[in-house]
């Protein structure tokens, strides 16, 4: 993938369109967090505008006017990071090799029409270990579909689906709980009854994933 060429001297801005795994959470939801919440902390010269929203799929985000809002604000030389998949699996979502790429193309084309640079990010894995301590894919063909689309349309791809598999397995079935919102009853005032969530990150986990994104930005020399 060729390096993106920016002519603007403005500060670099990254808009994020995505779901709950990337979203920014309120203090009332802590320690639940999304990777987009912390991405800006790994740069001194990047401004992150995180528009990711819980419960959204690639199509519902558009249907609610959220992509339109981003495209109204985005400027030439900005970046649009696009990560959907988890909610695309739901009844209101999309099909992997038909409607999913159809909607993703609207993000890509919209960004390019504004002179901005789209970047695709495959969905993060869920914490789902088999008996051999390996992560089992629960996201069907959505990551493969996005990867195919990135190649077809020559869009930079950050493969968080593969990266988070390695991350979770490096911690193992038990220690990987700290990456997610796993709390015992009474452990945190926001979750007095406790919680066992294998999808949504803790602040610790969200920062780890944000570090993966930051590393790929540097490795791919996106800016």
Q: How much is the average pLDDT? A: 95
Run of helices and strands? EEEHHEHEHEHEEH
How would you describe the shape? globular
Q: N- to C-terminal separation?
A: 13 Å
Please indicate the percent range of residues in DSSP E strands (runs of 2 or more): 15-25%
Low-confidence stretches: none
Radius of gyration: 17 Å
Q: Got a strand count?
A: 8
Main beta-sheet annotation: 5 strands, parallel
Strand order of the largest sheet: 3-1-4-5-6
Q: Percent of residues in helical segments?
A: 25-40%
Count helical runs: 6
Quickly give the structural class.
Answer: alpha/beta
Describe this structure in words.
With 223 residues, the chain is of the alpha/beta class. It has helices at 58-63, 66-73, 99-113, 142-153, 160-175, 203-219; strands at 12-18, 32-33, 46-50, 79-83, 117-121, 157-158, 180-183, 195-202. The strands form two sheets. It has a five-stranded parallel β-sheet, sandwiched between helices. A three-stranded antiparallel β-sheet has the order 2-8-7. α3 links the parallel β4 and β5. The longest helix is centred in the C-terminal third of the chain and has 17 residues, at 203-219. The radius of gyration is 17 Å and the shape is globular. The model has no long low-confidence stretch (mean pLDDT 95).
Please outline the helices and strands:
Blueprint: E1 12-18, E2 32-33, E3 46-50, H1 58-63, H2 66-73, E4 79-83, H3 99-113, E5 117-121, H4 142-153, E6 157-158, H5 160-175, E7 180-183, E8 195-202, H6 203-219
Parallel strand pairs: 1-3, 1-4, 4-5, 5-6
Antiparallel strand pairs: 2-8, 7-8
Helix pairs in contact: 3-4, 5-6
